[in-house]
Design goal:
The protein is about 40% helix and about 30% strand. Helix 3 links the parallel strand 3 and strand 4. Helix 1 runs parallel beside helix 2. It has a four-stranded parallel sheet with strand order 1-2-3-4, with helices on one face. It has three helices and four strands; from the N terminus they run E-H-E-H-E-H-E.
Amino acid sequence: MAMTAVWLKIEEQRAVQTLLEAVGKLGCVEGDVTLDFSSVHRIDSSGLRVMEEFVGEADDKGVKVVLCGVSVGVYKVLKQVKLASRFVFSS
């Protein structure tokens, strides 16, 4: 049975692990996946790689990825590496 939407709280210390776990769950999702980034104040290169993998998998499955609570610093990094355009942002 497919889920219609998923909400995941991303903790800065476990961001990579949480996103990797979420990649495996994308097969059950229809609609949106919302990632709450309100606890993430910075993102490193491994986090960016996993985010790119996650959004790529989501695109392949037709799932829209919404990021909420993104700090200005994290947004700027996503913009610099040209990932920002692949997400929908919400406050």
